[in-house]
Structure formats: C-alpha cells, structure tokens
Design a protein that fits this description.
Elements: H1 2-17, H2 32-65, H3 83-112, E1 119-126, E2 129-133, E3 139-140, E4 143-146, E5 150-157, E6 162-166, E7 171-175, E8 181-186, E9 196-200, E10 212-218, H4 220-231, H5 233-237, H6 239-249, E11 276-277, E12 283-284, H7 288-296, H8 319-330, H9 337-350
Parallel strand pairs: 1-5, 4-10
Antiparallel strand pairs: 1-2, 2-3, 5-8, 6-7, 6-9, 9-10, 11-12
Helix pairs in contact: 1-2, 2-3, 6-8
Bound molecules: dinuclear copper ion (CUA).
C-alpha cells in the first residue's frame, strides 16, 4: 500500500520535474507554476490513496478477523474512549491538511498576484469569443506572449460570466462583467507550432463549447516581429480581407449571418443599400454613415424585430477598421458588391510586393 502511494508520488514528482506533466495524464507543463501545481495535485492524490487503502483494507481485515464465528458469540466489552489515540488521529490529519493548504495557497497567490513590470495583456470575453489587447492597442483573437517573461492577464467580460483556462499553464480564472480579475504566468517553453489551447470553462450559453482561442509562446524577437506585423493588418490585408477578419474575430459573426438568416442581429446579406424597417416604424437604407453609426452607437437605430443588445465598438475599433468593416458589409450586398471588390482589387494592385521570408 505504502509502495503504491510512494510510487504514485514519485512518478508525479519525476514527471513534473521533466516538464511533462504527470506521466501522460496531463497536458505538458508550459510554466514553472504548472510543475508546482502538478506536485501539489500528486501530493494530495497520494495522501488520499494512502488513507483510502488504509481505511478500506483495515475495515475489511477487521470484518473478517472479528466476525461472529459461533452463533453464541457475543461482543467483548471494549473501551469507549482513548484520549491518546484521539489526540493522535486529530493532530496528524490537521498537520496534513494544513500542509495541503499552505502549498495550495502559495501556488494560488503565485497565479493571481502579478510581479511588477509584467507584460500586460487585456483579455475580454463575450458570447462567444475571446479577444486579447496588447499594450499598443492591437486586438487579436489569440494570446501571444514572449517566453521567460512575466505576463499579466487583466481579464473581464462584456456580457456574462466566462472563465479563462489554459491547461498547459495550469491557470484558470473567471471573467466577470464590470470587474477585472488577474492571472499571471511565466512560460518557460516555446509553444508547439499549433499553440496551446485556451478554453472558456464557465457555461455561458449555446456556443460555450466553441469559445476557444490559442496561446502562443514566442522568443522575444519573434514576438515583437509578430506584434508589429499583426498590428498593421489593415494595411497588410486590404479593406475587404481586413473587414472579413474583423467579422470573424471580433464577435460580429455570432449575431450577423452571411446567409440571409436572422440571428440576434440582422444578416449582413443584402443589408447595404436595401430598405429595412425600423422598430419606430420608419425605414432605413443603410449607407456608409448608417453602418458607422450602428457600429459606434448600436442603439441609435433598432431594426424591426430585433432587440437593442449589441455592445458599442466605440474605442475598440479604429477608423481604418470601421472603414474595413463597411467594405466587408458592402461586399455582402448585390447592389454594392462590385464596388467593394473593386476597392480590394485596387489595394492588391498597388500593394508593394513583400519580400519572401
Ligand atoms: Cu464563455 Cu463559456
């Protein structure tokens, strides 16, 4: 029994030490913190297994040993108290749980109190996507961080409770609307090519299970190069492709379909340039100004049959991004598709050829 427990403990400690997570049970450990968490997990597991076996096997042994062998057997008189024994079985478990608390709490504090000068990434959750804002204001759908540097995630939500979970880093924390929570970590390995998983672990509605991003760990120089290139995406992709990226990554697609079906919001198909009834009984024929207004002040004009639930993008979309979004919406409508595609074609034609990397 002791042997099994110790084996479990040692295998865990060994695997954690090798940065592999515990055997192949757990995702690979991408931070020092992950190794520490795995160790605590294994320690608690080993203690639990030890006492489980001690109690179950002990009970089974006594049941057999002191069974009624003859029908006439009666219980022998036995003591009802033993102060020494009671003190021992109180003190030992207290010591064990206090040790569990201390190591667990120390790890918890390490994950939620960021060191000074940690690299700050703001994480925002919404139904049903994550976005990550970097210090230069660029917002991406994935988390990118430099290796061997402290990173601080400042987490919040635009609507309901979500929860950030990066299994390889062994960190998880709720995203709460109207409040900030913090997670901090220092990745000590580069991520695999395809990145680590980043999940939502708070049930938040029908597409909760699709609320999934990636976490990438780069060398510092690669990280800087990535950020410069990614931040300039409107100039790299052109208005139509940049608008498409915004549509896919910034929450538009959750409510606005491209196949004409109504979601939480009106479909983008044939929206531009066609008359639509509003809730106040008037009509609107969307042009550039109307789309811009709806992005910045979504409650200004409510379409008939829809609720005023869209969050404003004022402050989170810059002018070139709004222009790109307008071009993308125009490309979904028969009356303006040719114009939008023309804008993109001109961009492609005039784009300076990028050198091969
Ligand atoms: Cu967000 Cu589940």
């Amino acid at each position: 029994m002791m042997g099994i427990t110790l084996m479990t403990l040692f295998e865990g400690a060994y695997a954690a030490d090798k940065g592999k997570g515990i055997g192949s049970w757990l995702p690979s450990a991408g931070t020092e913190h992950a190794n520490a968490v795995d160790w605590v997990f294994f320690f608690i597991n080993a203690v639990s297994i030890f006492f489980f076996l001690l109690i179950v096997l002990g009970s089974a042994y006594f049941v057999v040993k002191y069974r009624q062998k003859d029908p006439g057997d009666l219980p022998e008189p036995s003591p009802s108290h033993n102060t020494k024994l009671e003190i021992i079985w109180t003190i030992i478990p207290i010591i064990i749980v206090v040790v569990m608390f201390i190591v667990g709490f120390a790890n918890y504090m390490n994950a939620v109190v960021a060191p000074e000068n940690a690299y700050l990434v703001k994480v925002m959750g919404r139904k049903w996507s994550w976005t990550f804002e970097y210090p230069n204001g660029y917002i991406d759908k994935d988390l990118h961080v430099p290796v061997n540097e402290d990173v601080k995630l400042l987490i919040s939500s635009e609507d309901v409770l979500h929860s950030v979970y990066i299994p390889n880093f062994r960190i998880k924390r709720d995203a709460i609307p109207g409040r900030y929570t913090v997670l901090t970590f220092k990745a000590n390995h580069l991520s695999p090519e395809e990145g680590y998983h980043l999940f939502c672990t708070e049930y938040c509605g029908t597409e909760h299970s699709l609320m999934h991003s990636k976490a990438f760990v780069h060398e510092r120089a690669d990280f800087d190069a990535w950020l410069v290139k990614a931040s300039d995406y409107v100039n790299n992709l052109g208005p139509l492709r940049a608008g498409e990226k915004l549509y896919l990554e910034r929450g538009c697609k959750s409510c606005h379909s491209l196949d004409g079906s109504s979601g939480t919001g009106p479909s983008f198909t044939d929206l531009y340039g066609n008359s639509h009834p509003l809730a106040d009984g008037t009509n609107v024929t969307p042009d550039e100004n109307h789309i811009r207004e709806s992005i910045l002040y979504p409650k200004a004009k409510i379409y008939s049959g829809f609720q005023p639930v869209m969050p404003t993008y004022k402050g989170s979309l810059k002018d070139p991004e709004i222009d790109a979004m307008i071009t993308f919406i125009k490309a979904q409508s028969n009356v303006s598709r040719a114009e939008a595609e023309q804008v993109q074609a001109e961009f492609e034609a005039n784009k300076p050829q990028e050198e091969e990397e």
